[in-house]
């Protein structure tokens, strides 16, 4: 009798350990990926125009923003390839590969000579490395989301899936803190000369940590079951687009509001705009962004946990509604030129971002069948990123130049949130569905 009851208990402990380890690995891995991504976005806003695009004069800043967005164009390619191999050979191997790829590109940027040293080859090399970052990110999110959601108990997929989403505010927090430390401990001349390179080179340590943790995680139990049943798809992308095009489109559109509005905070535009327009210090603005990242992370967890009881789409649309309603007032607060009001704007903004972002991994996982799930989640995420956040800093800069006011930017971001609200309303909530099917 004693032996009979011991096995299930031991098994239950093992399962709990597996899904907690998977969630932790997703958080660490995506934090490293997004740290690398955000360091670039913030450096592009602060200094890359002078270092790599100086001959373009005033247009250099616009081109620097374009390089932030250009990586998004290559996300779908990364998503297609990662989805193909993730659905064919497993989630784990692909996640290790994407992490290594991102690390190599980030360290390469930190070692890159500037325009003053090698001329036009400097911006060309910078763009190539940025494309590699985009390719890697395109394959990263889907795999990390599925590893956490497919390991989780059915009634807690929202909160465990949020471990993937936490990589964004944590990566942003880490990137902004590192960049802030560099700006505080160096003079403007030192930062321009070599200080900007340090956050990129720090990525070496983060990659090693992330790589070690990911290697220790077991393969997704859903993928293992598919393999044992010999139900893996050998053409997952083709099967996805032939049988589930509506889900891909709706999932992508449900994400553009969060992604577009999020990149107003993390894409570097706000820091560059407020520092140049109102003469506010870069360090003070970066610290305000840190405060926003903390709130974003907190409400990502709140939104994810809430979705486990109230449903994914309902919670996401509370966030989308807040983003739509606050987009224009956000810039009214920023345009006061007061650091205190900018803090308020960023913190309120982060509430809507978190609520719309937290339930997303569970929602995407539950929208697609197991055999094409990696492809479906990754491709929908990548398309949503292009339509939403890819060129938000660039479009915002263009709207500001064209209209002379930030109101147009607020309307643009509000429209993105409204589109996501409508798309999310059209998605059937399938919370708790059997993920092995």
Short description:
This protein is mainly α and 437 residues long.
3D structure, described in words:
The structure is a single chain. This protein is mostly helical and 437 residues long. It has a single domain, classed as MFS general substrate transporter like domains (Growth Hormone, Chain: A, Up-down Bundle), CATH 1.20.1250. 83% of the residues lie in helices and 0% in strands. The chain is built from 22 helices and no strands. The protein has helices spanning 2-52, 59-73, 75-88, 91-110, 115-118, 121-151, 157-165, 167-185, 188-193, 198-201, 203-215, 221-229, 236-243, 245-266, 269-278, 282-310, 312-334, 339-357, 360-367, 373-388, 392-403, 407-425. Helix 1 runs antiparallel to helix 2 (59-73), helix 3 (75-88) runs parallel beside helix 6 (121-151) and helix 14 (245-266) packs antiparallel against helix 22 (407-425). Mean pLDDT is 84; it is low at 1-10.
Protein topology:
Layout: H1 2-52, H2 59-73, H3 75-88, H4 91-110, H5 115-118, H6 121-151, H7 157-165, H8 167-185, H9 188-193, H10 198-201, H11 203-215, H12 221-229, H13 236-243, H14 245-266, H15 269-278, H16 282-310, H17 312-334, H18 339-357, H19 360-367, H20 373-388, H21 392-403, H22 407-425
Helix pairs in contact: 1-2, 1-4, 1-6, 1-7, 1-8, 1-11, 2-6, 2-21, 3-4, 3-6, 3-20, 4-6, 4-11, 6-7, 6-20, 7-16, 7-19, 8-16, 14-18, 14-20, 14-22, 15-16, 16-17, 16-18, 17-18, 17-22, 19-20
């Amino acid at each position: 009798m004693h032996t009979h009851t011991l096995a299930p208990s031991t098994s239950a402990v093992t399962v709990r350990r597996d899904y907690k380890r998977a969630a932790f690995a997703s958080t660490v891995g995506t934090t490293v990926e997004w740290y690398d991504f955000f360091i670039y976005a913030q450096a592009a806003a602060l200094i890359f125009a002078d270092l790599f695009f100086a001959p373009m004069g005033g247009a250099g800043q616009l081109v620097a923003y374009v390089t932030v967005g250009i990586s998004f164009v290559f996300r779908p390619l990364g998503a297609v390839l990662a989805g193909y191999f993730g659905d064919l050979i497993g989630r784990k191997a692909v996640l290790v590969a994407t992490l290594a790829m991102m690390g190599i590109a980030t360290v390469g940027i930190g070692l890159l000579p500037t325009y003053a040293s090698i001329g036009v080859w400097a911006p060309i090399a910078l763009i190539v490395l940025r494309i590699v970052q985009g390719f890697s990110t395109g394959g990263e999110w889907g795999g990390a989301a599925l590893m956490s959601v497919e390991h989780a108990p059915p009634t807690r997929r929202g909160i465990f899936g949020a471990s993937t989403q936490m990589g964004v505010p944590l990566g942003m927090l880490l990137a902004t803190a590192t960049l802030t430390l560099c700006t505080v401990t160096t003079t403007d001349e030192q930062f321009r000369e070599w200080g900007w390179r340090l956050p990129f080179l720090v990525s070496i340590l983060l990659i090693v940590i992330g790589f070690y943790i990911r290697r220790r995680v077991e393969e997704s139990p859903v993928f293992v079951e598919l393999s044992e049943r010999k139900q893996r798809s050998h053409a997952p992308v083709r099967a996805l687009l032939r049988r589930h095009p509506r889900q891909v489109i709706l999932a992508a559109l449900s994400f553009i509001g969060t992604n577009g509005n999020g990149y107003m905070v993390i894409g570097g535009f706000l820091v560059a705009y407020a520092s140049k327009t109102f003469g506010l210090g870069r360090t003070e603005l970066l610290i305000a962004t840190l405060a926003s990242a903390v709130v974003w992370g907190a409400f990502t967890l709140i939104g994810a946990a809430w979705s486990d009881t109230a449903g994914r789409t309902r919670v996401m649309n509370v966030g989308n509604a807040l983003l739509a309603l606050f987009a224009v007032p956000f810039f009214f607060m920023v345009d006061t030129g007061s650091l205190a009001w900018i803090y308020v704007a960023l913190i309120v903004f982060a509430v809507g971002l978190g609520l719309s972002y937290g339930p997303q991994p569970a929602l995407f996982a539950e929208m697609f069948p197991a055999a094409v799930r990696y492809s479906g989640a990754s491709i929908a995420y990548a398309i949503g990123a292009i339509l939403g956040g890819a060129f938000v800093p660039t479009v915002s800069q263009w709207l500001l130049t064209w209209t002379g006011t930030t109101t147009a930017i607020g309307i643009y971001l509000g429209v993105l949130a409204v589109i996501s609200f409508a798309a999310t309303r059209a998605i059937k909530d399938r919370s708790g569905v059997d993920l092995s099917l």
